[in-house]
Structure formats: structure tokens, C-alpha cells
């Protein structure tokens, strides 16, 4: 989903929380919002029309924010009307990471991943085996008690100094702790890493280094099937090929 609306359509609702919009900078990155705008360089506002079939992701992000704001942006306010469901987050200054093999952004990303919490008991989360059951006959291997983000597009990560933040928690999932580094690997391969190097980077996380090999291979296969199914709607054209290449590396 990339249909964008002008933030002016929700201006009164936004300014109720931000005050007069002295500056407004629309944001084009991301796939989960119909409005995405930075107001006054202090607040990032994202939202959907209330009748949108994915409007529930707005509430899910509100529920998960208290558990992840130490590795993300803090939710400042939310508001829902008959027309719009909006969340206003603190605006964080920074840049997207460089996933190329020559990039030097792996360390802060790894440090951030070590701070992801266990799955909170007070939020109903999609279970990893259910999420990927259509793409794997061994999806039970993905079971776990950890909170997983799963979308490692560089547009979801913000680097400021030596600190990384993970944004856009619209699709949190409960599963094995090694799932997020495994999802990251596919993006690294799509960005030019050899599968062996990508795995070496992810192995800096003990959760991935000690993950059951059969479970990781099954997950890689599920990701290859998923990205192939998503096809041209994928956020990066090389994800299906990257996941397939990772499977070949693990099974050769």
C-alpha cells in the first residue's frame, strides 16, 4: 500500500496536538500509512483512514510502543475520528543505514537488536508459526517468546551517532529470538553481501549463532517462498532472489 493523502485532509486533527503547523514535510518512505508527515521538525504523524482494512495496525502500534520506545520513537499522542486514525511520534533526526558490504553500520544495529524485549503478555500478537504457515510445512520451528519486528527495510531504521532505532512497529510478531537477525540477513544479501558474510554479521547475536540450523534453513525457505509470492509488491526487487540464494548456500 502506497496511496498517500495530503496531510491537509487531517490538518485540524493534527494541529489539535501539535499546535499550528509552521512546517510540514511529507514522508514518502514506508508502505503502511496513507498520511506520513513531519510537523514542525518535532512530530512524525502517520495514519490511515478509519475504514481502511489495515487500520487495526494503528492500534497495534499504540499497544506495542510502551514496550519498544527504548529502541524506537516514543508515541506522543494518538487520535481517532470518523475519518482518520492517527499516531504522533517524537521525530528523531538521523539517517538510514548502509547495508552494502562496505557499510559500517552493522554494530549499532546489532546492539539495538540485543535490546528487543520478550513478547509482552498484554498485547495480542501474531504468532510466527501462523504468520508463515502458508510458506512452510515446518513453521512450528519458528515458535518462541520474543518480540520480532521482521521488516528490516533500511527505511525502518534510523541511525544517530552510534545508536540505531527501529521504527514502524505495525506488524509485531511473537516468535524465536533469531527471527529478526534472519530477516536482516536477506536484506544484507539483497544489498550485496555474500550469504556467508551476511550470516557472519548476524552471528554476532548469540540468539542467531546458537539457533537450530534446521529451523533457520526452514525459515530461509519460507522467506524465499513469501518474497516470491509478494513479487513486484516487495519493497526491494532483490529480496526473493536473495532469500533463494541464502537457501542454496545453506543447503549446498
Query: What do the pLDDT scores average to?
Result: 95
Number of strands: 10
Poorly predicted parts:
none
| Total tally of structural domains | 2
Percent of residues in beta strands: 15-25%
Q: Helical region count? A: 9
Walk across the major sheet and give the strand order. Answer: 1-2-3-5-4
Radius of gyration from the CA trace?
Answer: 18 Å
Q: Tell me the span between the first and last alpha carbons.
A: 36 Å
Q: What pattern of helices and strands is seen along the backbone?
A: HEEEHEEHEHEEEEHHHHH
What fraction, in percent, of the residue positions are helical?
25-40%
Largest sheet: 5 strands, antiparallel
What is the general shape? globular
Class per helix and strand makeup: alpha+beta
Summarize the structure.
The chain folds into 2 domains: 84 residues, Phosphorylase Kinase, domain 1 (2-Layer Sandwich); 146 residues, no CATH class. 35% of the residues lie in helices and 17% in strands.
Describe the 3D structure.
It is built from nine helices and ten strands. It has helices at residues 11-18, 56-68, 106-113, 128-131, 179-190, 195-202, 206-209, 213-230, 239-251, and strands spanning 24-26, 35-39, 43-49, 75-80, 84-90, 126-127, 146-148, 157-160, 163-166, 173-175. α5 packs antiparallel against α6 (195-202) and α5 packs across α8 (213-230). It has a five-stranded antiparallel β-sheet, sandwiched between helices. Strands 6-10-7 form a three-stranded mixed β-sheet. It is an alpha+beta fold and 252 residues long. 35% of the residues lie in helices and 17% in strands. The protein has two domains: 7-90, Phosphorylase Kinase, domain 1; 106-251, no CATH class.
Amino acid at each position: 500500500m502506497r496511496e498517500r493523502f495530503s496531510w491537509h485532509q487531517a490538518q485540524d486533527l493534527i494541529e489539535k496536538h501539535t499546535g499550528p503547523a509552521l512546517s510540514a514535510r511529507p514522508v514518502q518512505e514506508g508502505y503502511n500509512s496513507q498520511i506520513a508527515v513531519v510537523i514542525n521538525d518535532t512530530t512524525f504523524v502517520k495514519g490511515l483512514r478509519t475504514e481502511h482494512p489495515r487500520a487495526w495496525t494503528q492500534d497495534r502500534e499504540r499497544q506495542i510502543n510502551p514496550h519498544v520506545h527504548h529502541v524506537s520513537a516514543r508515541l506522543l499522542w494518538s487520535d481517532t475520528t470518523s475519518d482518520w486514525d492517527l499516531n504522533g511520534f517524537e521525530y528523531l533526526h538521523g539517517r538510514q543505514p548502509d547495508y552494502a558490504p562496505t557499510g559500517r553500520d552493522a554494530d549499532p544495529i546489532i546492539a539495538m537488536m540485543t535490546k528487543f524485549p520478550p513478547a509482552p503478555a498484554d498485547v495480542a500478537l501474531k504468532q510466527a508459526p501462523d504468520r508463515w504457515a502458508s510458506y512452510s510445512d515446518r513453521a512450528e520451528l519458528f515458535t518462541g517468546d520474543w518480540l520480532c519486528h521482521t521488516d528490516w527495510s533500511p527505511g525502518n531504521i534510523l541511525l544517530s551517532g552510534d545508536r540505531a532505532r527501529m521504527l514502524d512497529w505495525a506488524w509485531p510478531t511473537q516468535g524465536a529470538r533469531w527471527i529478526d537477525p534472519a530477516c536482516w540477513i536477506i536484506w544484507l544479501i539483497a544489498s550485496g553481501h555474500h550469504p556467508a558474510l551476511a550470516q557472519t554479521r548476524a552471528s554476532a547475536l548469540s540468539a542467531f549463532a546458537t539457533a537450530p540450523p534446521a529451523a533457520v534453513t526452514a525459515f530461509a525457505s519460507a522467506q524465499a517462498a513469501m518474497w516470491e509470492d509478494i513479487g513486484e509488491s516487495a519493497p526491494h526487487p532483490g529480496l526473493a532472489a536473495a532469500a533463494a540464494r541464502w537457501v542454496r548456500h545453506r543447503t549446498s
